[in-house]
Amino acid sequence: MNRPRILFVLWRLFRGGGVPIVTRAFLRHFDRSSFDVHVCTVRPIHTEDAPASLGDGITYHALGISGQPSAGLRLRAMRGIREVVRRVQPDILHLHSGTASYAALAAAGRHRGVLEVHDAPQAGRMSPVNRRFERILVKRLGFTPMVHSRAVLEATADAWRIEPRRFRLVPLGVDTEAFAPDPDRRVPTRAALGVPADAPVVSYVARIVPEKRPELFLAAARHVLDARPDVWFLLVGQGAGVESAREEAMRLGLGERLLMPGFVEHLPDVYHASDVFLSTSRYEGFGLAIAEAMAAGVPVVSTLVGGVADVVGDAGILEPSSDAAVLAGHVLALLNDGRRRLALAEASRRRMRDHLDVRLSVRGFESVYRRVLGSGAVLEVPD
Questions:
Q1: Helices 338-355 and 324-335 sit at what angle, rounded to 10 degrees?
Q2: CATH of the structural domain 183-355, one choice from 3.40.50.2000, 3.30.1050.10, 3.40.50.150, 3.40.1410.10
Q3: What is the DSSP letter of 88?
Q4: pLDDT, tens digit, for every residue of 68-114?
Q5: What residue ranges in 87-179 does DSSP mark as E strands?
């Protein structure tokens, strides 16, 4: 019996950024005996993207298009994707919000596809062209919309004026085994970063861009330091806002207590070196870094935005306001109460293992495919 053929269309397969991370997790764990998986990328696949780490049984189709985004690049990508679809003849075309319009020529007339919606249209992260095309994909071309949080489901259904039951809700997952707490890595990682072995550490892992509000993290750090001068801070990630974040840290006088190591090859080490994770994002469709921190047993304090509540539940602290002093107060409360910190760490690990492990997420993806194909048992939207 032939396996159903799934074709993912991505901008890049690199190891940073939400969409590639989600896709790579699926590729690493999917049932290769049940599905024939193909991946088409607009950009080249580089050695540092480590495709070999995803295992065998995946066919790659890299268009190899370089250069700055432009009308000409978009047209080349659209034609290239259409040609890959003609060659592969997928049973399901799997597209992602934000880049789905690059597959416009390939998607025309198709009725078996999945649109993975990472962010609600109201979040303002997509162009008007993308927003209109993605609505057409679902409403006119029959694509099944898949989301990862109730917040995105409800907001997108409202924006597109379609019934929420049309959506498939599949929470993302974290490899809870890969992120499991490792006390043996705590001291060596701190030493490599230049952090004292016994110092309290507050971390934030994110793209350093305005949406993630690194300046709010830095302002909260200043409040924490005023009360606890022994605390250190890790702001981990890359992005267009790195230099402005460094300048703001200097203005606030954070000095050596703030470390910005940029891209970290082995992210679990960052969490193993941390005592509290503070997320200050303005919007999160899901909150993957938060889930990673929880999987590593790091108590989370986060702004209550987007799909974060679906991730954290009652296993962390969610703050509706964006007041730096209030966020700092939550962090200090955890740093000053070891018993509560340990309780939240255990609750976080349990929540990730029971509800948000990557293997559960992969089962959800596969169930959506079976539903689209009209075969086999499917998982219903969770309560």
A1: 100
A2: 3.40.50.2000
A3: H
A4: 989 999 999 999 999 999 999 999 999 999 889 999 999 887 768 99
A5: 92-96, 113-117, 144-147, 168-169
